Structures are given as structure tokens and as C-alpha cells.
Amino acid sequence: MTDLSVTIGSLRLANPVMPASGTFSEALADAIDLDRLGALVAKTVMPEIRQGNALPRVAETPMGMLNSIGIPCKGPEAFIRDAIPAFKRFHPPFVASISAGTVTAFAHLARQVGEGGADVVEANISCPNLEADGHAFAVSAAATAHVTKALRAATDGPLWVKLSPNAPNIAEVALAAEAEGADAVVVANTILGMAIDIDHRRAKLGAGMGGLSGPAIKPIVLRMAYQCARALRIPVIGCGGIASAEDALEFLIAGCRAVQVGTATFRHPGAMIHILDDLDTWCRARGIERIDDLIGTLEPFEAPRLPPGEDLAAE
Amino acid sequence: MTDLSVTIGSLRLANPVMPASGTFSEALADAIDLDRLGALVAKTVMPEIRQGNALPRVAETPMGMLNSIGIPCKGPEAFIRDAIPAFKRFHPPFVASISAGTVTAFAHLARQVGEGGADVVEANISCPNLEADGHAFAVSAAATAHVTKALRAATDGPLWVKLSPNAPNIAEVALAAEAEGADAVVVANTILGMAIDIDHRRAKLGAGMGGLSGPAIKPIVLRMAYQCARALRIPVIGCGGIASAEDALEFLIAGCRAVQVGTATFRHPGAMIHILDDLDTWCRARGIERIDDLIGTLEPFEAPRLPPGEDLAAE
Amino acid sequence: MSDEPASTLLAGVAEHRVGEHLCKVLANAAVNADYRHLRLAAPPAALTARPGQFFHLLCPAGASGTPFLRRPMSVYEVNAAAGEIAFLYKVHGEGTRALATLRPGDVLDAAGPLGRGFTIDPAWHRILLVGRGVGLATLAPLAVVAAAQGIGVTALLSVRRPDLVMSVALLEAIGAEVHVVHDADGSSEVRAVERRLEQMIAAAPVDAVFTCGSARLLTLLQRFVAAHGLIGEVALEQQMACGLSMCFCCVRPFRVGDLVEHRRVCWEGPVFDLMEAMP
Amino acid sequence: MSDEPASTLLAGVAEHRVGEHLCKVLANAAVNADYRHLRLAAPPAALTARPGQFFHLLCPAGASGTPFLRRPMSVYEVNAAAGEIAFLYKVHGEGTRALATLRPGDVLDAAGPLGRGFTIDPAWHRILLVGRGVGLATLAPLAVVAAAQGIGVTALLSVRRPDLVMSVALLEAIGAEVHVVHDADGSSEVRAVERRLEQMIAAAPVDAVFTCGSARLLTLLQRFVAAHGLIGEVALEQQMACGLSMCFCCVRPFRVGDLVEHRRVCWEGPVFDLMEAMP
Ligand SMILES: Cc1cc2nc3c(=O)[nH]c(=O)nc-3n(C[C@H](O)[C@H](O)[C@H](O)COP(=O)(O)OP(=O)(O)OC[C@H]3O[C@@H](n4cnc5c(N)ncnc54)[C@H](O)[C@@H]3O)c2cc1C
Ligand SMILES: Cc1cc2nc3c(=O)[nH]c(=O)nc-3n(C[C@H](O)[C@H](O)[C@H](O)COP(=O)(O)OP(=O)(O)OC[C@H]3O[C@@H](n4cnc5c(N)ncnc54)[C@H](O)[C@@H]3O)c2cc1C
Ligand SMILES: Cc1cc2nc3c(=O)[nH]c(=O)nc-3n(C[C@H](O)[C@H](O)[C@H](O)COP(=O)(O)O)c2cc1C
Ligand SMILES: Cc1cc2nc3c(=O)[nH]c(=O)nc-3n(C[C@H](O)[C@H](O)[C@H](O)COP(=O)(O)O)c2cc1C
Ligand code: FES
Ligand code: FES
Hints:
The complex is a heterotetramer, with two copies of chain A and two copies of chain C.
Chain A: E1 6-8, E2 11-13, E3 17-19, E4 40-41, E5 58-61, E6 64-67, H1 76-88, E7 94-98, H2 103-115, E8 120-124, H3 141-154, E9 159-162, H4 170-179, E10 184-187, E11 191-193, E12 196-197, E13 202-203, E14 210-213, H5 218-231, E15 236-239, H6 245-253, E16 258-261, H7 264-267, H8 271-285, H9 309-312
Parallel strand pairs in A: 3-16, 4-7, 7-8, 8-9, 9-10, 10-15, 15-16
Antiparallel strand pairs in A: 1-2, 5-6, 6-14, 11-14, 12-13
Helix pairs in contact in A: 2-3, 3-4, 4-5, 6-8
Chain C: H1 9-14, E1 19-30, E2 35-41, E3 54-58, E4 71-74, E5 77-79, E6 84-90, H2 94-99, E7 107-114, E8 126-132, H3 135-148, E9 152-159, H4 168-173, E10 177-182, H5 190-203, E11 208-212, H6 215-228, E12 231-235, E13 251-256, E14 259-264, E15 271-273
Parallel strand pairs in C: 8-9, 8-11, 9-10, 11-12
Antiparallel strand pairs in C: 1-2, 1-7, 2-6, 3-4, 3-7, 5-6, 12-15, 13-14
The structure holds flavin-adenine dinucleotide (FAD) (2 copies), flavin mononucleotide (FMN) (2 copies) and FE2/S2 (inorganic) cluster (2 copies).
The site of one flavin mononucleotide has 26 residues of chain B, from loops.
């Protein structure tokens, strides 16, 4: 067996594979052994009771999907009373994903779920569905710094900040989160997209626009995860289109310390277990004893170019 | 036959379907009848002679591809002497795509190709391969305004500005181009991405990163095209992942006046002809006599939400 | 739960209640112009499916690429002895068109069984099934299981055209009393159906009512059930992504006393209390 | 060119030189552990393919989805009378693994013929073919066409293991003199091959040399051709996207006098002057 354990700040995970927020619940225990996962991540909870967005909430796209679920939520009390104990029956560290519309409410919620038993607070500052046209804390380094600082003050436990790929310069936003005390960043949430029902000439999603996820976005998110890993000292957790051990390895080699698997679980309930088994097989076939040795081993490149034509004249 | 003609500024096109720059050459005449297209768009030409990027220059991704071709180029003189006459043998208007590293060189090149016979100048201010990590004029509204102004001064003919999906707020950049006299914007170029060869732990592209194109990016680019069409008075030309008449219709209904087809031609040399035929069939089946009547007919939406739980209590 | 790594995805999942089953296609034949009957060889875990439950099917690549999301399909037949399950499906959009290309010998990935099926009380004497179109596919196994428990079955099938009627032979074989109504002669209109149902239960009283496939019939049956003091269930549809309670895309509103509550069709359903459902 | 809309993609393209042909698979059998022989029913336009030209194949969906890019394959056989073309391919990565799943009756989309093939001068008496591995697939049709024009063929085939040798029967059937070398006994080493070639052309002089499949053999043949004042051509490979000169991803460097120039394998090639090629 390969040593798959990884360290995210003060936290040691048995392996680098965990679910992405909003694509997982403890019901998946009906299909896989949750105790094999590196961590468990719950759907984002918000301070208020919410029904979520209008239907339809998902649309299929080429090798991906759009969603505009909109974070339906029974509120923090129900979350702490019912959801946290349900997740804590399992061994992996429990990550509570939180979001809020204001910095104060965000910080308050972080304290609540921390005291309620969450092992990690993951701040979803990037959900593109909550504001018109995708605005969110995560699209601005200043707003990210502001909210991270408040969250850091509100909780002593591990704090992960989940970034948005809709940010103009994601590494800059990641640096802002690092500077204000985040223990890790998750790269990234969904990319704002759209699909149109041409027969009815209306958006396929009830909310008009929604977040794109799945294999389609992997090349974009991998690039961002690499840019962040290159810029940061804190760990980067990659998330976007990961569906196989090979995909996970791309993110690890690019410098990510762990990965989150979202939409892949919708296509294959056993995807995370499959990834874990195949990571082990892949490493063993190559004599790699610790997955940690792979992290960030991408050969450096600096956009080498073939020299301009004239210079080649004499070769 | 449906009337497929559309107007882009002062230019009347027989139909809204044309190739995207860099994915087309007059050699396609071996496979399809180029005279059926709405316009012909050449590969970007730059002021200097260039060999392009290191190999490999493409990588396959889920329903898409990354490229880091890097604009190999024989220079403006060869382009005007050899390429323009080759394209002008065909009837559709000829669009010369140009790019340059400085505003002055850009403007000079626009004048050269305009005088050399181009019917339209398309300014590729967005190519993500030429600068480290994808920086380009197109990621800043100010830089876009600056270069557009110079281009507008340099040429009297139709001027299209091709935007980058890597811009933080593409509608803002589009507005800058409009304000400085662009006759249309093309939305958009490729999205910066990456893929890793896990066995060799190196980037799959010789240049490290490259531009993602193909069906995978369609939902993202459609969203951007819609955002631009909603914000602008000048026409928007949609470009990103269009592979079928249904895809083209999504862009037209979202408000685009025409579409460019890129990567789809690599999978199906006849893709553009197929799209044209199917557009006609689709319109005729629905009694739509002019494609123009479809443009921008998307039912408005304003992210309606199911009301929060409490309010539903009494229904 | 064992700590040993499962050697394959299937093995990793098989020990759990919801499996991802790689099933060999035995047959996939057209039943009529719109519908196909898909028979699969299925492992024991899949054979535990109860009436009203569904499988989430991973469609093969079709003409326009691979459908990304799975497609939910009610189990239509379970033949535990033969190790087979079957679906009856309507060819509709991209996913079902792709399913229609499956040939015997191909492998189909079916995740399930999923969701909450119909309630059956062995003390009942007779149940009434009212189905429209492909809703029959969902109700048929309920009739089979009820009959096996000695419960009488009265069924009213509503179809667009007489040639689209299905499952009559199956229902008659288990001794059900079958009534067919259709749009062509107006017999499927609400008023006509209501009169017909009154006659049917006057002749043979029922303990519970089950329906699937039509919002109009649901409304009618809510009135009918209330008027006769019966109980009932409805199987509902909604677009799904995960099929496993995780994504919240499949919600529908339900009336619970004075409140309206969202429930997930894949998890709290697809079978719901008839009176709480909102058409 | 007509102004009428073509009713299908195929029809729209068929009147032009490069077609997108929907070909029925006739056979797709393993030749040995690594290689498969794919036979297709092909329309007349595809049957014009000349030795050295290639088709760009749209692979079906495989285990990990649909390969997005087409895969270039040299035409291995053209049987105009039977209306068939064939390919000999090595199962290598995702695309060729997907090709390997094709069954008789399936349809494969083959765009072509593409590229510039081998030059044959009817005045020649004898040509020398030197191929390695799957490079033989590219050279085989050249041997057939040359033989049909009364040109003698001497062939040296280099393979990893004797059991991977292919096309010997085909070459012998057209009267070629065939020499096989392999890695197992060292006969495929550069020095050994060089000696062997010297003996071969001493016994039967040749007018031109053709090669495909090995950079090492290319270098060797450049020396050999220079030393003997011969001419020659090489078929080269490079990853392709469009296959039609449009994308510039398939370039390779060539030595032209003192200059190095980039040329597109899909357009200026895949067959190039032997001396200008850079291994
Ligand atoms: C629990 C359940 C059981 C079902 N059982 C059957 C059955 O036994 N036989 C049968 O023919 N059909 C059944 N359906 C409906 C079936 O799932 C849809 O017809 C099918 O998903 C349509 O897919 P498509 O790609 O052909 O259509 P498209 O319209 O192209 O599908 C687009 C998207 O909408 C979803 N969608 C479209 N129609 C429906 C629908 N009616 N219900 C849910 N999602 C839909 C698709 O799953 C897909 O995500 C059932 C639905 C549910 C929820
Ligand atoms: C003109 C030409 C003719 C060819 N003829 C034959 C033939 O007759 N028989 C045969 O077995 N092979 C032939 N090849 C090589 C064949 O194209 C590759 O083996 C095939 O593309 C590999 O695809 P894959 O998905 O299995 O491998 P992967 O490695 O998964 O492919 C990844 C990408 O790299 C490209 N690629 C990988 N290897 C090659 C290669 N050697 N040449 C070009 N592109 C490559 C693929 O096309 C794809 O885009 C030819 C190549 C060219 C350029
Ligand atoms: C249906 C759905 C719901 C989601 N809900 C949340 C959420 O509540 N909070 C959050 O941070 N991310 C949410 N996400 C984003 C995912 O966590 C993940 O960042 C994204 O889907 C990219 O990963 P993937 O491609 O592996 O799915 C959701 C994604 C999907 C598809
Ligand atoms: C191989 C390749 C080369 C390209 N070269 C250029 C170019 O020279 N200039 C340019 O403006 N866009 C270039 N593009 C971008 C396309 O014009 C187009 O904007 C993009 O591919 C998205 O459209 P698609 O998804 O239809 O391919 C290139 C794209 C590809 C795939
Ligand atoms: S389909 Fe995901 S919650 Fe029901
Ligand atoms: S493959 Fe596109 S130019 Fe050769």
C-alpha cells in the first residue's frame, strides 16, 4: 500500500481525496465506505433558511453540467443539530462549508459551526449564484482579505478559503487569503456559464445563469491551481473536473496537496473510491512509496518558443 | 430558403456563419465550397516573421483541445502578396486578423492590411499565448480602449475587436472597444488552460499553458456573449465551441449577430456547411423566414428564486 | 466495513445498498412507435429493487456525444429467478435516444436501486392503479407484487392512441381488471375518467389508489381519494443529477398541512403521499 | 460549385477532393499482439488515395470518453475493385484503443485522402523500402503500386520481435525481395543494417530509397543515399489537429540548403525529401 497521507496545515489526512461541497451528503454511505475518504465536506450552509433557486436547476453540457441550485438551507441550528452529528459518525475530519452575504454574518457562522463540532471551516466566498452576474467576495482580492481576516478572528480551527475561477486573477486573490491567515485555499468553485433552450428561447436554468463543473473545466482549473500553488506557501486543494486518478495526479503534480471530487460522483457514485484505488495502483507500479513525494513535481517551464525564423537561418 | 443574411455595421453578410481565425485556411476549399460562407477569416498575422511556439502545440481535453500554436507568421508583406489574393478569389468578404505587441505596430499593421485588400480588420487583442500567463490588451478595458482608438484612426474599413474570455469583466472591455469606434466585437478567443503528462511530469504543451477551445467552453463563452450583447449597441459575433446549428442558434438567440466556428472544423471539415444547412432547415420547420428575426429573442430573466422558506409557509 | 481496497469500482460499491451495476443488455426492442423494452442481466443486489424504485442509467455515447448526466428509469420488471431487470422507456431526447442504440451484448451501467418505492399493506383487498403513458411502466411492478400477496388489482390505463397501450397482457396475466381509455374517442377526458372510476370502485371497492404519469389524473385522484376517504400514493418525476439526495436539483413542492415544503424526488420519493403532492 | 444546399454533411463534402466519408467497418481483427487490420467499405472518392497519403479518423467513444481530435492513419491498402480501403494500426493510446473497439457493421468517419504521397517515376527499375514497426503500413501500398508499374521492390523490414513482422506475404505476393531484421538477434542494429543494405544494393541496384518508422533508420539512410548518389523520400509523423494545413500544430523542421524551415506534416507531407528531413 502506498502511503497516501498528506498534511494540510495542522491537519493530517489519510489520503488526499475528499468530496466537493454541494456534491456530497452522508447518504453516499449507501454506495461507498465513507471512512476511506481523506475528509468529508458538507453542502454549504448559510445563516438564513433558504429554498434555493427556481427550477430547472441543472443543465447538461458537453462533458459537464451547469447548476444553479442556489444553496437551499435549513439554517445553522438545524445544521449543527442534525447534519454535524450525522457526518461525525464517520472517521475522516469533517469540513463545514459556510457562506454568508456579509462579513459579520460570515464570521458569526464560522464561530457557530466551529463550536458545533466542525473540524475545518471551508469558507465558500465564491458561489456565483448568489449575486447577479456572479459577483462574490472571491472576485476581489480586497474583499477576500477582508472576509478572511474576520473569519480568522472568529475561529481557531483550520480555515480553508474556497476561491472562484471567475476572479480576474485568482493567484492574487489566493495571496490575499494567505496573507490574512487562511490555512489552505480550495481552487476552485464553478465557472459562470449559460445554456439556452432554443425551442422556447429561454435559459435552460431557472436562474438564467449557473456554475459550470465537470471534466470540461478541468484544463482551466488545473491552470489556476498551478498558478496558485506556484504563488503560495499554504496548501492548495484542487477542485474542478476531477474524475479519475490520472486527473487527481495532474493536480497533485501541479502542486496541490489534496483534491476535491464533485460532479464525478454524480456520474459514478464510486468515483472517489475508484480514484483512491487507482492512485495506489499507479504509485505502486512506479515504486512511489509516498504520494507526498509527487506533489509539485511538475517540470518547470517558461513558455519556451522556437526561435524566430531569421535566427534559424544559420542553425 | 430562409433569408440568412445579417448586417454587421456597414457590411451585409449572406449568412451569419464564418470560420474563426487560426482554424481556417483557403485549403479548406478542398473540402467545402467556401463561397457558401458568410465571411472568410484568416489566421492572425503579426508584424514580424515568427516560427511559433515549441512542440507539442496541441493537447486533447474532454470535449475540447488546448493549443499553444503561438502565431507562426511570414510577416505582413508575404501575407498581402500571397494570402490576401488567395482568399479574394472567393466571394465572401475577407477578414484579416491582426495582432501586435505595441499599439503603434498594431495600428501600422491595420493600415497595411486594409490597403492590402482586407474587407474587414479583426484585431486579435486577446491571444493568450503571447504574454506570460495570458496577459494581453484584452484583459484590461483601458488597454483595449487605447489600442482600439489607434486602430480606428488607422483604418476606415470595418473594424472588429476580438476579446478574451480571460478578461475579468468582458462586458466592460467590450464597452471600451465600442466607445472607441469598433464596429463589432468577437466574443471570444480561447480560455487559458493547462494539461499535464503525469508519466513525464511535464506540461503536455511545449509552451506550458495554452488556449482551451471546443464544445467544453461553450457554456462559458455563451454567457459572456450574452453579457456583451446585453451591454452593447454594436454587433457581437459569438465564438466558442460552436459545432452545430443548435449551438449557433443559442448564440444568435442570446443576441449575437453572427458566429465564428473554430475547432469544430477540425473534427468535421464540413461543419460550417452542415450548420448552414441545418439553420435553414430549423427555421423553415418553424416558419421563420428571416434569421434576423431570431437574434436577441432570449426571454429576459432576472435570476428568479423560490422565495425563502418562511414566506412559503402560507403559500 | 473492510479496510482492504476494493479491486474495482464495482466491487467497491457492491457491498453497499446502492450499487453501480455493469449489466449486460439482453434485449432492447421497440414495443411500439414510442416505447422500448430494455432487458438486462443484473447482479443480486440489483434484484432487490422494489416497485416504485428506480435505477440511474449511464447512457452510452449517442449521435451528439455522451450524455453527461444519468437518466432515471423506474424498474418495470424484476425477475429474480432469471437474474433480470427490465425497463420500459419512451424515446424522448438525447439520453433515451442513446439508450435506444444499445444492442444485446452491450454493457449498461445502472446505479441503484434508488429512492423510496410504493407502500403495500398485505391486509388490503384491492388496489386501484391509474396510469398515463409511460407511467404504466412504474405501476406495473406494483400490480405484480400486490397480486402475489393476494391483493386484487383494478387498473385504468390512459393513452394517447389505442396502439400505444402497453402492459395489458402483463396485467391480465396476474388477474387484474384492466380498463383502457384514450384520447381518440374522448374516453380519457377528466370527466369521463372520473365517471368510469366511480363505476369501477362501486363494482369492486378498493383500499388504496396509486397513480403515475399525469398531473391532470393526479388532481382528479386527489378529489376522488378525498371524496371516498381513501389513501393513495403518486410516483413523480423531476430532472435529476446525482439521484442520491446530494445535489438538490430534483426538488418539488409538497403541501404539508398549511405549509409548502420542498422534497427531493430521488430521496424522499419518487413515491409520495397522493394528497401532499402538488401537480 | 452549385448554390444548392447539400442535404447532408457528406453530400456537401463529397463533391470536393477531401471528403468526410462514413465508412462501414468490414473487419477489425488483431494481426498480432500489438497491431490490428481495419477494413472499411469506402466510397469512390476515398479510393483515389495514393501510397503515403493518409486519412484522418474520428475515433468512436472509448472507455474514457470520446477522443476529441481525429487520428491520422496512412492508407495501407486500396482495393478499388472491391470498394475497400484498409489500415494497419498499432494500439497505443486512447484513440487507437477506441478504434480497436470497432465491430463489423459499425460506421467510421474517415476524412481524406489527405497529404502528399510518395513520388514514383515509371522509369525506375527498382526501389528500396526500409521500414520499422508500423512504418511498414505506410510503405506497403508503395510497393504494390511500384510493382504494378513493373518496378522491382527490395524491402528491409525492421521489427522488435520476429512475431511482430507483418506484410511479408503481401510483399512477396507482388514479387518483392524481402529481408527481415529484428532486435532479438541484433540484426536490426544500425551497423548490421548498413552492411545488409550494402549487400542488397550490390546484388540489385536501386534508383530510389523510401523509409518510414524510425529516426535511426532515417539518419542511416541519409548517409547511405548521399554515399551512393541516390534519391529518396521519408514519411514522417507528427501530432495533428486539423489534418488540412490550417492549425500549424504538425510542423517539423527541415533543412533546406543552409536554412531550417518549418513544414506541416499534414500538408507539405507526410512524405518529404529524405535529405531535407531532420530526424
Ligand atoms: C424516478 C423516475 C422514473 C422514471 N421512469 C421512467 C420510465 O420508467 N420510463 C420512461 O420512459 N421514463 C421514465 N422517467 C422519465 C425519464 O427519466 C426521462 O424521460 C428521461 O430522463 C429523458 O431523457 P432524455 O435525454 O431522453 O430527454 P431530454 O429532454 O433530452 O433530457 C434533458 C434532461 O432532462 C431530464 N428529463 C427530461 N424529461 C424528464 C422527466 N420526465 N423526468 C425526469 N427527468 C427528465 C433528463 O434526465 C436530462 O437530465 C422517469 C423519471 C423519473 C424521475
Ligand atoms: C501521417 C501519419 C500516418 C500514420 N499512419 C499510421 C499507421 O498507418 N498505423 C499506425 O499504427 N500509426 C500511424 N500513425 C501514428 C498514429 O497516428 C498514432 O499512433 C495515433 O494517433 C496515436 O493515437 P492514440 O490516441 O492511440 O495515442 P495517444 O498517445 O493517446 O495520442 C495523443 C495524441 O497524440 C497524437 N499522437 C500520438 N502518437 C502519434 C504519432 N506517432 N503520430 C502522430 N500523432 C500521434 C494523437 O493523434 C493524439 O492527438 C500515423 C501518423 C501520421 C502523422
Ligand atoms: C450541484 C452542485 C452544487 C454545488 N454546491 C456547492 C456549494 O454548496 N458550495 C460550494 O462551495 N460549492 C458547490 N459546488 C461546487 C463544487 O463544490 C465544485 O467546486 C465544482 O463543482 C467543481 O468541481 P467538479 O468539477 O469536480 O464538480 C456545487 C457544484 C454542483 C455541481
Ligand atoms: C489551433 C488554433 C489556433 C488559433 N489561432 C488563432 C489566431 O491566430 N488568432 C485568433 O484570434 N484566434 C485563434 N484561435 C482561437 C479561435 O479563433 C477561437 O476564438 C477559439 O478557438 C474558440 O472557438 P472554437 O471553440 O470554435 O474553436 C485559435 C484556435 C485554435 C484552436
Ligand atoms: S437528484 Fe440530486 S438530490 Fe435528487
Ligand atoms: S494538422 Fe493542422 S496544420 Fe497540420
